[in-house]
Design a protein that fits this description.
This protein has two helices and 29 strands. By secondary structure, the protein is mostly beta strands. A hairpin with a 6-residue loop joins strand 19 and strand 20. The chain is globular.
Length: 370
């Protein structure tokens, strides 16, 4: 759920889709007719199981200025990807059981919608006079978490929780993060769920360094990480957070931070793109590039044990990291990794993106394995 590194350099991006202006896709064959999602029937809901949905969000730059964003969405068996042309203040998150969460702000109010990718319809999840900069769905499929800012001053208003169907009013669950000279102004706030869905990491990033507050849905105390040496998140597993160092680019040290005692360890000093997955036994495994070219891959557990190399893709596709760096992601099994041209899921690349099983390296087309 999330903005790319180059978005952060351009300053904070908010939400503006307008009326969800949608243009024809040119990445998976012939352009399809103009598509406008109709209202979905019944109350808003996500699928009970993943349905192979994916999205890719990229900035539209004109004259050196970001004038909008281009959102591609697709799903297994859907056919050509659908392309949404969004305003410059926009976000997407998910997928969540075949749906993608999309935010919009028209200068007067923010609207959050849930798009059913396969059915081609959307639910409006309501509006607010505050600016909703980011949002995510809880694993229960019934709760929305939103990061809000004041419309006039753009002051941080904290993280709010409300029901997906709007029956429960929004309540603030996390106060605004305090200003800190060591991190500078917050350009990006993002969400990341733990592998078991019981904890939500709220990431607040300055130009390079990030702070984290980990909210437990089970009622455990709030845990924080405020170390200027830590950059953006790779993943969260139990009480351990994996993140890049606070670098301006890659390669960069890859760190694991213990949320209980605050200790940290370097998993690799010169890591490129990285992803957190699970092995056949359900244990967390970090897969990362060695260096910046993506030609070598390494596996390591969260205790720092080297689990050996992983062969790179012969076609040159790169490991797709989290959406904060890649701009998109796809629903897939936790023991699989995503690969795409330049580390992105856009289907307009030189080679189609694919999934790869961590156990045996078996490649599978992205549309065939949810």
């Amino acid at each position: 759920m999330v903005e790319s590194r180059w978005f952060r350099r351009a300053g904070p991006g908010l939400a503006a889709i307008g009326a969800l202006a949608i243009v024809a896709s040119t990445t998976l064959g012939a352009p399809e007719p103009r598509w406008e999602p109709s209202p979905c029937a019944g109350p808003p809901r996500t699928g009970d199981v993943p349905r192979g949905a994916w999205y890719q969000l990229d900035p539209v730059i004109e004259g050196g200025v970001r004038t909008g964003q281009r959102l591609e969405v697709g799903a297994a068996g859907l056919g050509p990807a659908r392309t949404l042309t969004l305003g410059s203040e926009s976000f997407a998150a998910g997928p969540f059981g075949g749906t993608v969460l999309v935010g919009t702000d028209d200068g007067r109010q923010s609207r959050v919608s849930l798009v059913d990718v396969g059915a081609g319809c959307a639910w409006s999840l309501g509006t607010t006079r505050y600016v909703v900069r980011r949002a995510t769905l809880a694993p229960d499929g019934a709760t929305v978490f939103e990061f809000r800012v004041d419309r006039g001053s753009r002051a941080d208003l904290g993280v709010w929780r409300r029901s997906l169907d709007g029956r429960t009013p929004a309540v603030r669950v996390l106060a605004p993060i305090e200003a800190h000279a060591g991190f500078g102004p917050t350009w990006l706030t993002d969400f990341a769920w733990s592998g078991d869905g019981t904890s939500l990491a709220v990431q607040s990033c300055g130009e390079t360094a990030c702070r984290f507050r980990v909210l437990s849905l089970a009622g455990e105390p709030l845990r924080t990480v405020a170390d200027p040496r830590v950059g953006d998140i790779v993943g969260l597993s139990g009480h351990r957070l994996v993140a890049h160092g606070s670098c301006r680019g890659l390669p960069c040290p890859l760190l694991v931070i213990d949320l209980e005692d605050g200790s940290s360890m370097i998993l690799h000093a010169v890591a490129g793109q990285a992803a957190l997955a699970r092995d056949a036994d359900g244990q967390p495994v970090v897969v990362h590039e060695i260096g910046a070219d993506g030609t070598r891959l390494r596996r390591v557990d969260l205790d720092g044990r080297d689990l050996g190399p992983l062969a790179a893709d012969p076609a040159g596709r790169r490991l797709v990291a989290g959406p904060a760096r890649s701009g998109g992601t796809a629903e897939h099994a936790p023991d699989a990794l995503l690969f795409g041209t330049d580390g992105r899921l856009s289907t307009g690349g030189t080679a189609a993106p694919f999934l790869r099983r961590l156990l045996d390296g078996t490649p599978v087309p992205i549309g065939e394995v949810p």
